[in-house]
Amino acid sequence: MRPLVVIPARGGSKRLPSKNIKPLNGQPLIHYTIEAAREVFDDSIICVSTDDKKIKQVSESVGLNVPFLRPKDLATDKADSRSVLLHALEYYKERKKYEADVIVLLQPTSPFRNANHIKGALNLYKNDLDMVVSAFKTKSNPYFVLFEEDEKGMARKIKKGNYTRSQDCPTVWELNGAIYIISARSLIRKQIHELSNVKLFKMDELYSVDIDDELDFLIAEHIINKIED
Fold first, then answer.
1. Model confidence pLDDT, tens digit, residues 69-83
2. Which residues, in sequence order, are bridge partners of residue 103?
3. Which residues contact 152 (CB under 8 A, 6 or more apart)?
4. H or E element: which one contains 181?
5. How far apart (Å, rounded) are the C-alpha atoms in residues 32 and 109?
6. In angstroms, rounded to a whole number, what is the distance separating the alpha carbons of residues 35 and 108?
7. What is the C-alpha separation between 133 and 124, in angstroms, rounded?
């Protein structure tokens, strides 16, 4: 396995400004992911992909070199993750003569994902897979609590099932955004949502907090002292 670790950290965040470097318990949010990655991988294959000079500076303040600033077309809120990952792959191939066959995507908004989680997901990955992705057991079970409106504005269950109690529903897993281990070959051929040969790395809900807005951040601040390595 020749991995490339990509930590994508765009500067513009509308829901929670500067969230990737917002201090959590006195430490910039992105540092938690950098620390976890460094416990598993060498700095030379850890790539913080950002368009923002401040994020670059904060990332480099702990001694990690940030090799580039993203091009402008990958710095908008419409830029997709696949394009960002392919850019990093190509950069390392062309500039550093390092051709990765696996991308380890670690989003900086998952501060409680740690090195043991990353190692566990890596152990699940096999060459015949498209991807290993982290998930937790969801409370929002589509057999019981998730609805959409039909053309008449009437509520309809997203997934049908004859269940009268939520505990009788099949277990459903929700992606938590913490870890994606993706075959480079598969990513070059397909969009991430099109990958079908996928295994789940199952995590506890406590470690699955994904910070997207102010409420998520408040939750993270509340539970951070309860997390044990």
1. 999 888 877 789 999
2. 4, 182
3. none
4. strand 173-183
5. 9
6. 11
7. 10
Q: Give dist(CA 126, CA 101) in Å, integer.
A: 12
Q: Which residues lie across from 46 on neighbouring strands? A: 5
DSSP class of residue 194 equals G
Handedness of CA 214, 218, 221, 226 (dihedral sign): negative
Q: Are 126 and 114 in contact (CB under 8 A)?
A: no
Alpha-carbon gap, residue 39 to 188, rounded angstroms = 28
Both tokens of 185, joined, read 């070959």
Q: Which residue has the tokens 């937790």?
A: 136
Q: From CA 115, how far away is CA 158, in angstroms rounded?
A: 36
User: How many residues make up the chain in this entry?
Assistant: 229
DSSP SS3 for 8: strand
All residue ranges of the chain with pLDDT < 50 are 229
- Dihedral pair phi/psi, residue 174, rounded to 5°: -110, 130
